[in-house]
Amino acid sequence: MTGAKDRMREKKMKNQPRNVTYTSSGDRDSSAELMLFDHVINLCSLTECSSTGRGAGRGQGSQVCGWVRGHQAGGHGYSQDLPKYITASYFAKARAAEVSAMLKAVSKPAASCHVFNALPKHMRRRAMSHDCKRLPTRLREGALRLAERSQRAADKQKKPVPKSRSRRARRRHGNLLLEFNRRQKKNRWLETHIWHSKRFHMLKTWSFCVPLKPTAKSFRASYRAMNTHALLQDLSYYCCLELRGSEDQILRALARLTNKQTGRTFAAVSCLSGARQGMLQLYKADRFPQGALGPAEFLWRPRAPDAAHRQLWIWLHPALKQEVLAELLLVCVCSPAVSVSEDLHPEADTAEKKRKMRDEGDTGPPSKRMLGDGTRPAGAPVRWESTDTHITISDLTMEIVRFRLIGPLAHTVLTDTLRPASEMWSGEDESLHQQQTHTFQRLRGVCSTAELPAGCVLGLTVDDPRLTLPQKRGKTVPDLQPSTEEDGVRDLRLRGVAAHCSQSSLWDESIRECVTRDRLSDQELNRRRSDLLVPGSRLSSSSAVPVLLVHQAGRVCGEERRHWGSGWDLLLPKGWGMAFWVPLVYRGVRVGGLHMSVKHSQLMGQPHFPHDYPDCPAGERFQSEQESELLENFKRRPPSKRTNYIKHGCLAPFRCPWQQLTEEWEELVSLSEATGSSRDEMPFTVLRSLKELRLLSGWIRRRLRLRVTPDPALARLRVTPDPPLTPAAAAALQKEFRRSLLWVRLRLLSKGQPALHAMVCVPTTSDLQLLRADGHCSGPQEPRHTDHPRARSDPADPERREPVLRGVCPPPFPRVVSHCSRPVLGWVTQGDFSLTSGCGEALAFISLTGLTHTLLTQPQDQRGLVLLRNPASLQYRFAQISLDT
Fold this sequence. Notes:
Elements: H1 2-12, H2 28-52, H3 60-64, H4 88-107, H5 137-157, H6 167-170, H7 173-183, E1 188-189, H8 193-197, E2 200-205, E3 208-214, H9 219-228, E4 231-234, E5 239-245, H10 247-254, H11 269-272, E6 278-283, E7 292-300, E8 310-316, H12 321-332, E9 335-339, H13 346-349, H14 351-360, E10 381-385, E11 392-395, E12 400-406, H15 410-417, H16 430-442, E13 457-463, H17 486-495, H18 509-517, H19 522-530, E14 544-552, E15 567-573, H20 577-585, E16 590-591, H21 594-604, H22 617-636, H23 658-672, E17 685-686, H24 690-701, E18 706-711, E19 716-721, H25 727-736, E20 740-748, E21 759-761, H26 765-773, H27 789-792, E22 824-834, E23 839-847, H28 848-857, E24 865-869, E25 877-882
Parallel strand pairs: 1-3, 4-16, 17-20
Antiparallel strand pairs: 2-3, 4-12, 5-8, 5-11, 6-7, 7-8, 9-10, 10-11, 12-15, 13-14, 14-15, 18-19, 20-23, 20-25, 21-22, 21-24, 22-23, 24-25
């Protein structure tokens, strides 16, 4: 019996504190009273000691009063040294807090107190939480109470959810259109959005939803299409601004936004007739060379014999539209004249009303697809007029659909897809239509799109291309049979399209609206096909569509791959996007997105907007967004897997400090020449003056360039050489463009693949000697740097109070030019392995002052050689600078 009692005692005392002793049943009541009195006295003493300030550490208050936890050490009873008094207010407050916490815990049981935890482990099931009937009978009542309590708490927190309609109701055509119109209010959709969203990754940017790149691997296939066949892109997100008024007034106003030093202006003779499309660089009014805005394309309407006013279209990137529109309103002195009303786009403004009406059972007006810029808020101006200059500016954003075909067979695809209209619009010239049709048919005799003059424009009126849609998808191939009109084809290659053939009804707003309104739906077209007596025969033409074909020249600068990437732009009235898109896709073209637009510019060696325009407002915004994206991707990686850019000697892996680069090179050259320089707030610019670019190109290519200038005395042309590279000529250029960046193209001499924000550095004399000794040398290496503790974080420094990532040096940066063993000239904005040249190529911006200083110190046979190093690498690669003009 004694052993059994001992085992029972051990079992009962298994989870008890050490200060609790097991007593007999007769002494249990007295022991419990003593323990309770002990705890009460301890709490009172602690409260009193804390209130009177006695006791410095934990547990000192009880020791001062002579009390300890539990029984005395000797175990012979309690001491008679009791506290003199108890503060009732503090004692009651402490007990009230404990009672409140206990009641709260009882009213909201934790997970450990759940009814299901009372079951043994072998009986616990997840299904019991959903069905209380699976529990034993003795626990069902408690489980039901907990379930009801949880449901009441959830109902109080959740908002009432409206009853959703069935999927069949949501998929009705009218409801789908209303839903699509609602989703376009923030980011506008292109007319080909549904087609792209099933095959492309979509990107929401510039208030548009544009296709980024295909979901399938198609980079090499897209390159082959640009190189041998045709690549199709939807550029309808480009904005169009229309100017109407007197030619002299328009040219006088727009002359303030351009400069002849950068190339063509709006008054170019070849473009003023309307037979050519032009490209130019826009600046803020009277701010050249400061205040750059960005590139633009313009197209004049051909002169009409009885018209006194001219019409001009300016095509802009959506990131550039607001800045250019503000400058146009300034130079043309225009004010808002016409605003968008709710009557123009009722389906965009009353979509929610129609949705509620359908839910309530009212049919309401039939839903329509939103065409054009229907997401523009009500009251936004779309037209501005000037009482001084009599110029009218109209916003035609998304009123004209624009497709681009890139490749040598782009003209073949167009001639196979489009058919000249058999019926004309009332008022159109029949003889002009015949001449345009004849010119369009001559395109079949051209072997490549690159053979045509750059920027030529052809107006045409065609039938609905859905009528000639092939039965299955194929690939258009050129006609190898010799043309019967060799003279006409040769004249088309040399002179291009005549000016009068560039006329089109697409310029008239009334005709555009009529064509959009009278377009047959696919449902009606399919019904007519089913009613044909002979299945598969062609339907009669029911509508004529005016279009404009604008030639794209491709690569026009440099001596390599001339006219590579040329093609055609197809301009259509709104609403006809998918009617032309599907027939073009059925001709075997490849479809590309925004990613291929960037690669197309990179392969052509031309800057892409806004990536390669750091001195423009849109370029600055793009760099800020790119920096945030790169930094976010950098933070996602674990700290042990991140690149330590400080150890690699890279101060700017996410954003390039162009302003600091130009200032430091200016100071460095001024100090070396002992001329001194004064720090001012002059911002950096990008050199776009053609005269200076040709001069620098001749210095880099290490050969003599000849310049043809008129000699008024002898009334003939005089050939004079460009000035050679001398310290005086370099100093004069540096003084005139002291804080300018130069856009250059780099080609690696050996293996390697340039990356984004790779550093362009100046080689030392030993590096050039190493390359001269071994022509296949990869290049030198950068010694590994030390990551100082200050670079990580220094709370004592007031300039570095924000948390800094390890391995990244935050701005303001120290010396950018001399932070590594080779002086830094600039950084790469685009870089990749070029499939065209078979080596690594990059597009970069470098300091003009640093380049001229470097060219003076290099040998003549090695002039223009630089070093290229990626941000996450210590290996330098030799590269050759090319300046295409």
